[in-house]
Design a protein that fits this description.
The protein has three helices and no strands. By secondary structure, it is mainly alpha-helical. The radius of gyration is 36 Å and the shape is elongated.
Length: about 130
Amino acid sequence: MESSPPPIKPPRREKYSKETTGCGLLVSVIKTLDASETNEQRQKEKLKIEREFKKSDQLLNELVSKHDGDLTKVMQLFGKVSTHVTMSREKIHTVKENLHACKQLLRCRREELKKLWTDAVQQKYVLEMFDQM
């Protein structure tokens, strides 16, 4: 496997709060649209959101095309790692099953040895009794 430096996390452009990301942004948009009194204000808000969405979409497309090679390489590596993890899990599962089977066999073996030992002790006492007669 070739040695390459680990990936570098790109710097963030700006800090985002709950209000500007995810569900917080959606709730904020809904509140703004609900608070708008006229259709004109709602249309302005809608156009503003659409423009921001287009900017974000364009930026995302640029970043994806800029880092296409890296993304492809990462996806291939992820696929290999995922395959290795899956195979390892299957092997571990097999080993666990084998260990469980060995444990069961050892229990049976222990019971057999215990029985043989008690038989040997009984035989010893029987021989001692014959010697005394």
